[in-house]
Specification:
- By secondary structure, this protein is mostly helical.
- The chain is about 80% helix and about 0% strand.
- The chain contains 6 helices and no strands.
- The two termini are about 35 Å apart.
């Protein structure tokens, strides 16, 4: 479910970026942005996470989603990829997803680096 959610967020961002680069009439842009935002199923997965995931995951998943929702709203208002507000939202999204992945890895017990684990294994005499 974690991988599905982060993949859905990535698909939404890619779709929003494509829409932001196109010159289309406002009414058509509104329809396409909303359609692209809903297509990957992030809403549904986020609700599933809210039931089964720890609170840290739920909070981080919501934070990343909110940034995408803000991006969607900015595009509906007519922004393009060159607008400073759009660039700032992309940076916020990257940070939010990085945090989400960190807490997901912690929950899965995969947070440490491979190198650190190899050193610990060798230090403890296990090969």
């Amino acid at each position: 479910m974690y991988a599905d959610y982060t993949a859905a967020l990535s698909q939404i961002l890619t779709a929003l970026n494509e829409c932001a680069q196109e010159d289309i009439p406002a009414a058509e842009r509104l329809r396409r942005v909303r359609e692209m935002f809903l297509a990957p199923g992030a809403y549904e997965i986020r609700h599933q996470l809210a039931i089964v995931a720890p609170p840290e995951i739920v909070d981080a998943s919501r934070s990343a989603f909110v940034v995408l929702r803000d991006t969607r709203d900015l595009l509906v208002a007519g922004a393009s990829v060159d607008d400073a507000a759009y660039v700032e939202l992309e940076e916020r999204f990257d940070a939010a997803v990085a945090e989400l992945r960190t807490v997901m890895r912690l929950d899965l017990g995969a947070a440490g680096s491979i190198t650190a684990r190899l050193h610990a294994t060798r230090r403890d005499g296990i090969r």
